[in-house]
Write a sequence for this structure.
């Protein structure tokens, strides 16, 4: 049996210009009494992974059985956490739009009372979205925004 492709991609993090939001440099915080030494690296930080294939799979499974979609996604992931970046675990967590990255937006998802995967706001369309800036390519569910940026 052939193994299915992973639902995440490794991204090059060593290229010049790739920034990781680590905060200020250590030298700027030396000799401050309120600073606690944080060690060499933040625990639990995962860099260099792109979960766009997972998000596309989840969007394609809207209206289908949640348990089957979850089993398939978990079997093809390194860890289950990214599933719940899009899928709300409770009613309080439901959001119509979820931001993944700097300029990528996706429909928020949840599991309805019938056990089916559903969109929080199924009426949202890319035509309704406006970008925050002119320098980035903003996308909604993988489709570039059709409206242009207008300064305030």
């Amino acid at each position: 049996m052939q193994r299915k492709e992973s639902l995440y991609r490794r991204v090059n993090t060593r290229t010049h210009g790739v920034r990781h939001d680590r905060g200020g440099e250590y030298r700027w915080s030396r000799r401050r009494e309120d600073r606690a030494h944080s060690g060499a690296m933040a625990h639990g930080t995962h860099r260099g992974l792109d979960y766009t294939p997972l998000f596309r799979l989840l969007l394609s499974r809207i209206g289908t059985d949640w348990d089957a979609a979850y089993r398939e996604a978990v079997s093809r992931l390194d860890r289950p956490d990214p599933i719940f970046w899009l899928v709300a675990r409770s009613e309080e967590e439901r959001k119509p739009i979820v931001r993944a990255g700097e300029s990528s937006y996706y429909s928020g998802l949840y599991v309805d009372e019938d056990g089916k995967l559903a969109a929080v706001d199924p009426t949202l369309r890319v035509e309704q979205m406006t970008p925050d800036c002119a320098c980035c390519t903003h996308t909604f569910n993988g489709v570039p925004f059709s409206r242009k940026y207008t300064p305030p």
The chain has three helices and nine strands.
